[in-house]
Amino acid sequence: MLLGHPFILNTVEKLQGANFIPTWDSLVVKVPNNAASVPWHRDAAVPEDCQDSRPIFNVDFYLDNSDEHSCLWVIPGSQNWAASEAEERCSRPGFVTSDAVPVPMRAGDVILHNIQLLHGSPEGEGNALRRTVYYEFRAGEIEAEYGPHTLAYLPIKQRILQDCIIRRQQCGYAEGEQVYEYKPTGAFASYYHEAPLSYRIPHENYLRR
After folding, report:
1. Where would I find the H helices in 38-190?
2. Per the domain annotation, does 79 fall within a domain?
3. Residue 112 belongs to what domain range?
4. Best exposed site among 72, 79, 88, 163 by fewest CB in 10 Å?
5. Per the domain annotation, does 45 fall within a domain?
6. Is residue 49 part of a domain?
């Protein structure tokens, strides 16, 4: 139901176009008084020869409050750095924040962050639980040309997305919402005539070699 959120999907479409694909999803849990730091990193690299300016990004749904001791820290503008500059910054010892800013969140808040943005989080302090659900989205045209998944992966994830939209429409707390209409075009249009067999898709079966 979360993946089918109409405001989020409308936002994704405005940034990536109607043929967007939900490519990855994950859950991160920071346990009270026992949360390891997440070192500075990029989530992935955009192919160097990709001339498409549409951003590839994660949508981060916060299920709990997150303060400066547990929140995401980002280095503004680092999504535009060369790979060598990003690698040098990530290689520095410790979780240095002198050039970074914290992004404290409230439960229910959402972050959209570019996959090339340098980010991380310090070792957790205090007794607060932090759970974050992540969905990555890519323009279908970029995914089809550069991967990392094979073309067979795209309609599978499109069917999952459509099923999530339907499930959200049927759940009680979404009553009265304007349902998002997923209407991909061209080669991406004929995708959702079958229900998904599973929501759990092994990436290793669909990665380009």
Report:
1. 83-90, 140-146, 153-170
2. yes
3. 6-205
4. 88
5. yes
6. yes
Is residue 63 a contact partner of residue 27, using CB atoms and an 8 Å limit? no
Structural domain includes residue 1:
no
What pLDDT sits at residue 193? 60
* Phi, psi dihedral angles at 63 (to 5 degrees): -90, -10
Record the tokens describing residue 186, joined without a space. Answer: 């061209």
Interior/surface letters 10-23, b for 16+ CB within 10 angstroms, e for the rest: eebbeebbbbbbbb
Q: Token match 């959209």: residue?
A: 112
- Residue 160: C-alpha distances to residues 23, 88, 170, 173 (Å): 11, 38, 15, 20
What single-letter amino acid sits at 138? R
Q: 0.85 exceeded by the pTM?
A: yes
Asked if residues 131 and 26 have their Cβ atoms less than 8 Å apart, the reply is: no
- 10: domain CATH number is 2.60.120.10
Taking residue 53's Cβ as centre, other Cβ atoms within 10 Å add up to 6
How does DSSP classify residue 72? E
Say whether 152 sits in a helix, a strand or coil: coil
**pLDDT tens digits along 141-196:** 999 999 999 999 999 999 999 999 999 999 988 888 999 999 999 999 876 567 77
Query: Rounded distance, CA 39 to CA 178, Å?
Result: 39
2 contacts: CB under 8 Å, gap ≥ 6: 61, 133, 164
